[in-house]
Structures are given as C-alpha cells and as structure tokens.
Amino acid sequence: MVIPLSVASILQDHVTLEVECVDRMYLNVYIPKLQSDVDVCQFFRKHRGATFASSALMDPISKGFVRSLDKFASQHNIPVLTFKKGQRKDDIAKEHLAKFNADEGVLFIGKAQEKARVLRTERRWTKDGKPYPYLVYSSAMVNYYYIYCVDRDFGPFFLKFCTYFPYNGKLCINGHEYAKRQLMKENIEFKALDNGIESCQNPERLQQICDEFSAQTIWALFDKWMSVLPQAFTQEDRDAGYRYNLSILQVEFSLTQVFDRAVTGRYFFEQVIRENLDIGRPDHVQLIFGRRIIKTTPGRFRTRVITDGVIPSLHIDYKNCRIKQYFKEGRALRTEITINETKDFGLRKSLTDSNLASLREIGFKANRQLLNVQRISHDPALGQKTIDLMQSPVIVNSVRASALPLGDAKAHALLQALPIFDLQVNGFSNADLRQRLAPLLGKRPEQLSQGQMTYNLRRLKLRGLIQRIPKTQRYYVTDQGLSVALFYITAYDRLLRPGLAESLNPDETTNSQLGAAFRSLNKALNKHFQGYSAAV
Question: What is the pLDDT of residue 227?
Fold first, then answer.
C-alpha cells in the first residue's frame, strides 16, 4: 500500500514541463458600420446613392462574392467541398493538412448551410398610400464558406464568411499552433501533444513565445490573409470606412502540466475529482474568480464530471464561462478556462492588446486558483488518510501488518532508523536495519531475531514507506517514507512529549509559557464549575 502523494508534492516534484498559453480563439469578423438596419440603409442610400434600401440591392453583391470565391478556388486549384450533416469539420481539416506540403496556403474551401440573422424587405405604405421597401431582421438558412488555411507563423486556422449581407464571419486560431511554428522557425526541438507541447529543449523560450501572442499579432495575420482572399466589398467601400473589425467571441486560456510518469498524474487527477465535486457551488466558485456571488447573481454555477471511455474530466461553470480539467493523452494535466462573454468580467469584446492582456490575467489566474483550491481541499484529506494508515493495522493481499502508532516505543524506534538509510545510494538490507534499530530499542543486534526483522520490514513495506530494489534483498526509503518518518519523530520528540511535560508540570516557579497557560485554563475551569455547582 502506497501513501498517496499530495497535490503540492506532485506539482512541485513530478512536473517536467509547465506552459501557460492562449489556446483556441474564436473571433467575430464584422463591419461595425453595418450592424443595424439603420446602418444598412445609410450604406445603400448615402454611400451607394440608392433611392431605397432593399434586399434586392444585396443580391448582386452576394452573387458576386460567391463567384469571386469560386474563381479564387479554381485559379489556385483549391478543393471545394460541401460539408455533410454530422460531419466533423476538424477531422476533414486534419486529413487535408496531412497531405499539405507547402509552407503556407489554402487547404480547401468548405460550404455549409447554417442559420443566420438576415435582413429582408417588407412592403410598407406611406400616409398617402404609396408603397415603399422596409428592412426588417429575420433568420434564415444560408450558405457559409469555410476557408481553411495554413500560415507560416500561425499554422492551421480558418475563416468563415456568411454569403448574405453584411457578410459577417468568424476567425478561428490556436495559440499552441502559433507557438509550435515559432519554435520550428528558431530551430528549438520540441515534442508535440495534440493541441499542446509535451517537451521542449528550451522551456523558458517556449513560455516567452506564448506570452508574446498578442492582439497585434492576430491583426497582422488577419490583414495579411484578407489582402489575399476575395472580399464582398469593393475597395471604394473599404476606403469609405466599411472595413472588417475583430472582436472576441470565445477565448480559451490553458495551463498544461506534463508529468514525469503517467500513473502519477492519473492517480492525482482522479483523487482531485473525487474531492472537488462541489467546487462549482457559488460559495466555492467565487474562490476561483475572486468575485462575490450572491443569490441574484445571474448565470449558471455547477460542477460536472464527464467520462469519455475511462478518462474523466472536471467541468466547472461560472456565468458564461467554463473551466475544464482533464488528463491529456495520458501525459499532462490540462486546466483551461473558456470565456464566452467578456462582459462577465467588465471587459469589452474588441480585440486590443489591453483587452486581451486583461483577459489573460483573469484566465490564467482562474486556472491557478483552481489548483490552489484543490490543493487546499486535497492535501489535508491525504494527511488524514496517512494518519489512519499509520495508526491502524493494514492488510494487503491477505498479508497483515500491525499499526505504527504515534508514541509507541517500537514504532518510534523503527521510524527513527529510516532517515539515515535515505542517504545510502545502494539502499539497506535486513542486517543494516537490525544494526541501526537495536540501539534505539536498548538492545544488542543479536537480540533481534530474523523473524522480528522480517516483520518490521513488512510493516514498513505494506505502508509504502520502503520499497524493495528489484532482484535484490535490499530496500530503499520512499519519498513518502522519509516525509512520514521525519514528521512523526519530530512531532513526538519536539512537540508532543515536551509539550505535555510543560502543560502537566504543577510547579508555578518554572518559566514555561505553555505550562502557565494550561494552569490558567485549569483555574478558570475550576472556578466556572464551582460557580455552576453553587447555583445548582
């Protein structure tokens, strides 16, 4: 039986790489001056000089935009396909990416029908009974064009555009893919995880690259590809201020911690999930975000554990945000927050360096706070389990070993013998333990029988305090064994025994603060009970 590791010890001693990075970003692509029916009317009447604004004026623009996309695909031999219902677009993108050998370019263009908010024309009448067109919003199924690309600095990403006025779109990028491309450009060796990095020759530079991922960098990518791809609006329109802008629709901030051994991380993660099922409650989740939550606070607050096969994941909802924690590819703990609404934190949606920096601070701090809350809740529970393990007999595979209770002379001597063996490179044998243990018990080594020593070794081994070196009769002290032994003997020798001696000393002339405090407590209790007895 092995004493479980604490969250603090695992994250301190068993993590080989730790990276904070912006993960997936989903951005709105829109023209600010065309986001209301009044704006659209002004576009057609004031900018383009039409008498009335109607959907009939939009149709030629839409058809021209679609033709330009088809022509662009034909000129550059870009595959154009139609997504089928239920088909995962990411899977198709991976297939095309695997066959793509160029440094950058367009992988393919995909078409899909999706619901969109559109403007339609209604016939209305003036006071004198003359009809005129009037724009109203409604919803309709329209075609979207997905343009999947590879950039030499950003790696794979995609842009999608609605083929209906005002041709809003989305931009999806990934900070980990950006980091991988930068490492390759600088010839820094690394091993990739799916949407992450498992190991890196220069971890400090990796983190620096992740920190350099900014709004300015994203804008450079967008401007670069918008100068290459067809647009619905003419150069004259753009010169008049009808240019695309970017805002944050969804952004993920991730903390990836790669473990030295998969079994360590898996055990840690399952234990943490078991002890934090209520962390999504409002009174607990405010510890993560540092925001006061009351009954009238809008939003959803809950914790869910979702199991995909045998791999569990922890999900915590806060308003429109979600923190997800899972064991990635059997190698790393991934803690990531998805922010779907910047207003939850009093921030605007616009993509600026200051806005993104503020979101980064909130996101990464929330990830760290979750780990802190888990550490605080998990580590004391492990301490109690360890105490129970030491104070009670254990049975492992039908083999029983008696307790090692605090204060027991034999158990205390056995634990006192362990720390010195931690310094021995080749471990220790049964005979080595006998030579060390006997004087602590006030005996000669020959007075301890072989059976007694074998039993003592069993008591230590079944609790995970020592481990046998394979193919030998020698043992080594485990990290848990050293910690438990040092704590037990120190707590007994320096705290419990002298503390009890001082508290029980009746001599008021001794200079002991602890003894004086206990004598004052006893006097106060006696006075209280005497008053109670008199009243009765």
Answer: 93
Token pair in block for residue 414: 């056995």
Residues 6+ apart with CB under 8 A from 424: 432
Cα 157 from chain centroid (whole Å)? 22
CA pair distance 38, 18, nearest whole angstrom: 50
Domains and CATH numbers, the chain: 1-23+174-199+245-391 (no CATH), 32-167+213-243 (no CATH), 399-497 (1.10.10.10), 505-535 (no CATH)
> Which phi and psi (to 5°) does residue 363 adopt?
-65, -50
Residue 114: alpha-carbon gap to chain centroid = 31
Burial of 484 (0-12, 13-18, 19+ CB in 10 A): buried
Closest CA to 221 of 181, 191, 194: 181
Tens digits of residue pLDDT in 123-154 = 888 778 787 777 888 888 999 999 999 999 99
| 3-class DSSP state of 174 | strand
Which residue type, as a one-letter code, is found at position 382? L
Q: Is 106 helix (H, G, I), strand (E, B) or coil?
A: strand
Residues, the chain = 536
Contact criterion met (CB below 8 Å) for 338 and 353 = no
